[in-house]
Specification:
- By secondary structure, the protein is α+β, with helices and mostly antiparallel strands.
- It has three helices and two strands.
- Helices cover about 25% and strands about 10% of the residues.
- A two-stranded antiparallel sheet has the order 1-2.
Length: about 50
């Protein structure tokens, strides 16, 4: 089985993902995936907005 690159995951528009830092990391293989349904902390925690 071929490893998927982070770039391939980010290029899926329905996932609505964005790489926030480290553009060189786009070519790294994805080795683990964790799914969560937690809300965006910036939308729910005021202290996160001031960082």
């Amino acid at each position: 089985m071929r490893a998927m690159l982070l770039r391939e995951v980010l290029d899926q528009p329905r996932l609505k993902l964005a790489l926030l830092t480290g553009a060189e990391g786009r070519e790294r293989p994805v080795t683990r995936l964790y799914v969560t349904d937690l809300p965006d902390p910036a939308a729910t925690w005021p202290a996160a907005r001031s960082c």
